[in-house]
Amino acid sequence: THARSLSCVAAFESGSLNIDQKDLREVLAISAGSSLYITQFLWSDPFSPAPSSFIRRSVGNVGKQGTALLFSPNNPKIGDPGYDSWRSVQHDEFDGKFKNNFPETSLHLSFTGYELALNTGQHGLRDKEAYFLQTVVQAYERSVWVADLDILGALGGDKIRFSRLSQRCQHTPIESKSAGHGPITSIDCWAELLDPPNNCSIIRAKGNWLARLATTVVAIQKTRHVIIASEKVCWACI
User: Fold this and answer.
1) CA 125 from chain center: how many Å?
2) DSSP for residue 205
3) For residues 107 and 216, is the Cβ–Cβ distance under 8 A?
4) How far apart are CA 11 and CA 15, in angstroms?
């Protein structure tokens, strides 16, 4: 699991820390020295994520001493649709074309200021050796904040609130093109996702793993039933 891998990272980086895996279940990354160790499946396309035990190392840190254990708030904030913006909510019917209509989506990290020292059993240290640091993953469109993301809670929690559409089904090519769920609405911008239609809809972010990740998490946080698909979709399976 990712908690076991992060526990190993903390031990190797510090040379002394022995953090129980249960204390790392809600931790998404570790900042230590000049490195940031991120749970890989949290930064992958949600249709084909990396194994949960994979950790990705990036150069950088959170600007604090010691070993920082990054975790997200339990109740992430989601923005309003923004009806006063120049992009109105269209909710057009899906025309069968897959596009990337979220090219200017980006993710950023910020900190709430909340810290909690982890009891490592070692005393007399001048600085906190290991501590939890509340970290907010934020989705932006251009320079406009859209929503806070609890990626681990949405995709790696105990309650699975999404499914992945199988690429191996028993439907024939003709059957796979037929749909029995009525009209499908295209979601082509963040405003349309924040104010979704009541019927079946499709978020069009073809080939953009970061936007697919962000929109999937927000849809789950809005308690929508989410089906993650690749470019090959069997409409009879939906």
Assistant:
1) 35
2) B
3) no
4) 5
